[in-house]
Amino acid sequence: MAAESLAESAGERITPHIRYRYRMQEILERELKQRRDLSGMVGDLDAASLAADRSRITRRDRRALRRRFSR
What we know:
Layout: H1 2-8, H2 16-35, H3 47-51, H4 56-70
Helix pairs in contact: 1-2
């Protein structure tokens, strides 16, 4: 990609590193959009569900911590 950017910028007023940066940014944005599905998840991580985890195990752990610190 770097060689292509260098060849494309020959004879133009834009430097090769700027063209390379633009091309890489397009690729990175496309990869991120492909990983993001309709639920807002990126890969295997869903930060919203982690922040608002209300599972039974989490409640049990919170109760255990409250008991431990209240003594």
